[in-house]
Amino acid sequence: MSMLFLLRMLLMGLHFMVAGVLGVLLGICRPFNPDNSRLCARLYAVPAMWILRLNVKADVNSLREKPGTCVVIANHQSNYDLFVLGTVVPHRTVCIAKKSLKWVPLFGQLFWLAGNVLIDRGNAHKARRAMLTTTRTLQHEDTSIWVFPEGTRNLGKGLLPFKKGAFHMAIAAGVPIVQVCVSNYVTHMKLNRWNSGDILIRSLKPIPTTGLTADDIPALMHACQAQMDDCITAMDREIAGATTERQSG
Which InterPro entries match (predicted)? Predict the structure, then answer.
């Protein structure tokens, strides 16, 4: 294990604590403000990208200019997603995550105070109630919701099957879906080198859901998964090509 890797992990540990304290203070000053999420995401992401020296290129105009409220879906590779995706979280966007996150010191409290939605996946009744709350949030509070539809980290082994929750929410609220795709960085990241690797992030055109019903969910999920798969494959190819070019040049 290189000195650089150990130093990075030490700095990341310190940064995680400092960002947690600042985020909790922000949450206490303006509890449950839906824009706290975006500010806290930047608080974690900007210094982390500097410490990790990951070169992130984002082409996310459809996300920045999102159509009012929407459901954002993204592929979920690892815990580093917090730092990698933190710079592209748009205004007034909260996240859905599992309830156990609440117990992570500082981060859990910050996450809750930032107005994010914590779901008890083991309890169907509570999960359904949380979903109704999110539908209300989308319809009446000018707030978008960010979901990782795979429901767990795929560890860079390709997209896992999507769960229906995000699509139910979008259709129930009648809001579009915006897909965010991140190139496969988990298996290529080299944190023991000065430059740790390249990452591409792309958002796709919003998909309207007006007029769709629960019967349309399987086809919608399939279409989203196929589009995201194609986009991730194309970005991985781009990065591999650029790396080969650099090495041969």
Answer: AGP_acyltrans, Plipid/glycerol_acylTrfase
Domains of the chain (ranges, CATH numbers): 3-248 (3.40.1130)
- Single pTM value for the model: 0.93
Number of other residues whose CB lies within 10 A of the CB of residue 68: 11
User: What span, in angstroms and rounded, lies between the C-alpha atoms of 46 and 69?
Assistant: 25
Measured distance CA(187)–CA(206) in Å, rounded:
29
Contact between 186 and 196 (Cβ < 8 Å) = no
Q: What does each C-alpha distance from 176 to 25, 154, 171 come to in angstroms? A: 33, 25, 8
56, 201 Cβ separation under 8 angstroms: yes
Distances (CA, A) of 128 to 74, 96, 132, 151, 155: 22, 13, 6, 16, 28
Which residues are within 8 A (CB) of 17 and not within 5 positions of it... i.e. 6 or more apart?
A: 106
Read off φ and ψ for residue 144, nearest 5 degrees. Answer: -90, 160
